[in-house]
Amino acid sequence: MKHVVGKRQFRARWLRALLGACLSLLLALPVAAASGASGYRHYLLGDADAPTPGQVRPGLLLMGGGDRNFDAMHWFMEKAGNGHIVVLRASQGGEIGEEFFNEVGGIKSVETFVFKDREAATDPKILAALKRADGIFLAGGDQSRYVRYWRGTPVGAALDAHVKAGKPLGGTSAGLAMLGEYLYGAMDGGSQTSPRALADPLGDGNTIETDFLHIAQLKGIVTDTHFSERARLGRLVAFLAKAEHMAGKPLLGLGVDEDAAVAVAGDGSARIYATAPGAGATVVRGGFAQKQTEDAAMNLDRVDTVVAGADSLLRLPEGRVERPLAQRSYAVRDGVLVALDTPMLVIHGGAGVEPGDLTADEEAEVKRALEAALRAGHAKLQAGASSLDAVTAAITVLEDAPQFNAGRGAVFTHDGRNELDTSIMDGASGKAGAAAGLHRVRNPITLARAIMDKSNHVMMVGDGAELFAKEQGIALVDPSYFRTEKRWQALQKALQEEQDAQASNTPLVLPGKAYFGTVGALALDARGHLAAGTSTGGMTNKRYGRVGDSPIIGAGTWADARCAVSGTGWGEFYIRTAAAHEICARVRLDGQPLARAADGVINRDIPKAGGDGGAIALGADGSVAFPFNTGGMYRGWIGADGVPHVAIYREDPLPLP
Ligand code: ASP
C-alpha cells in the first residue's frame, strides 16, 4: 500500500521539527491510501494509542443533518468513554473529525476513513480501526454509496458487531438514513421529493433497501433525515408504504429534524437534543390499512404521527412517545398529503405598508381587525364548516374594516371611484368564482362565492355582476359607503404627483407603493380541504376599468388539493407571472417545499420583472409561508388552538405553526 503524504501533513511535520511541539497535538495527518482498485483516504487526529479514559457504553445517536449539536455530541463521546472515535464516510474529507476533535473535544483520537470504493470495505487497516473504535460515527453524504460499498461486506458486519458489543454508533444525514432495518437508499442518485414519492409509492424512485445493518433498536424502523423541511413527511409515508409492501409487516417511520438529534440509550429509551425551538423527531405509525397498488398514486385514509421534542421520552424500537410535543393525523389523497383535524386559517391585509406609515393607534386598530378576521374564520372551522366558509367569513370582516383596501376603505380610481375586484377558489373541487369592476356590492367576496356556487360562470364584471348580485339577494350599497377620507387624500396626492410629473397623458405607470391593504384568506378545514380568496380596491389612481390580479384565478388567487395562495402586490406583475398558480405548480410539479416555491415567485421572479408585493401560501399538509419584499405586510394565522398570531412590519416576530 502506497502512502502519499498530503501537503498539510508535510507542513505539519516541518512545524513540528521547527518548534519541537508535542507530537500528539499536531497529528493532523491526512494519509491518502490507495492500492490497486481499492481506495480510501485516512485522517487521524490525536493519540490513537492513549488508553480510553471512561467506560464505553451502548448508545445510538441519530442526528438529523444539522451541525453544531454539541450537547448531543458530548453525549455520544461520553458513551464512547471519551476515547477513540472512527468516522466513516464516502465523500469529502476529514472535516467532521476535526470538528469532533477540536470543537466538541474531550476525546483521545478521531480517525476518519473516506471510502472511494467497495474494495476498501475489506481493507484490514479499516477493519482493525473499526474493531478498536470506542465509538463509530457515520457522516453525511450520499447514502447510496454506503449501501453499495458496505452492504454484505466486512465493514457492514463490523458495524453490526460494534453495536452488539455494546459500543456507541452515531450517524447524521445520510449516515442516519441508512441505519434502519429498511432504508431509503437514494440508489438512483436522486433525493426523492414528497410529491414524487407519493405519486407512485411502490415505484422505482422509492429505492427502499434492506439487509444492511441489523440494529435491534431500529428493527422495524425506516429513518429519514433533514426533516425540518416539513416537506419530507410525505416521502417518509411513501417509503413506509413501500417498505411494508416489501416486508409484509407493519413498520415505523422516524424522521429526525435537521436541528435535532435522538440519543438512544442501551435500554432503548431516547431523548431529543434540539438546537432550535420546537425541533424534534417524528414517529410515523405504519401498519397501513390500505395496500397500495402498483403504478398508482398513494391513497391512505389515515396516518398518525407523534412528534418527540426536547421534553419527551421516546422508546425504541416500539416508537412510543411520552410527553409528545405534538400529535397529528394525515391522509394521503391521490398522492397529496393532507393534514386532518388541524384546521388552519392564514390571512393577509395587504403588502406595502412601511414602518412610519401608521400611528401606534392605527397599528393597534389594524391588529385588532386582523385578529377579528382570524377569529371569525376560526369559529367556522371549529364548527366543522368548510374552508370556503372560513375564507368568506374572514374576508368579510376585513372588507368591513376601513383599514384595508377592500370593501369599505378601498382605494380610489383615477376618476375618484371605488372599483372592487375579488375572487375565491375551492381547492377540493377546483371550482372558482370572481368578480371585477364592482361599485355597489358591499361584500364582494360573497358575490365571488355566489358566482362560484350559483352560476355557470367563473367571472363576471361591472353592471352584469351587480345585477347577478341583486338577483342573489346580496347586499348592495350606495357607492359612497366605500369612501374613506384617508383613501381620498391618497388619491389627491397621487394625482398631484402625476400632474407634477406631467405624466397624465403618457402610458400608465403605477408606482409600486401605490397599493395598500388588499385582503386575502386561505383555509384548511378539518377534512383537509383548502380554499383561497382575495378582495381588493386595486391600486390608487388606477385607470377606469383596470383589472388587477386579485380577481384573476391563477394570478391573485389559487387553490388546489395541495396548495392555496392569495397575493397582494403590483397586480400587473402577478398577472404576467401567473403568480399564485406558479407557486402551487412548483410545489406540485417540481416538488419544492411551499415556502421555497412562494419565495421564488414573490421574492425573486416578481422583483426581477420590476414588480413587488407579497403573498400568503398554505399547504394541505398545514405548512404556511408569508413571503413579501416590501417593508411590511399585514398578516396572521390561527391554528387549531384558536390563538391568533398577527404581524405588520418585516421585523415583527410571527411564530410559525
Ligand atoms: N394586487 C392588487 C392589485 O393590483 C393590489 C394589492 O394587492 O394591494 O389590484
Automatic annotation (TrEMBL):
GO terms for biological process: proteolysis. The active site is at 518 (nucleophile). InterPro entries: Class_I_gatase-like, Ntn_hydrolases_N, Peptidase_S51, Peptidase_T2. It comes from the Bacteria. Substrate binds at residues 546-549, 568-571. Belongs to the peptidase S51 family. This is Isoaspartyl peptidase. It comes from Cognatiluteimonas weifangensis.
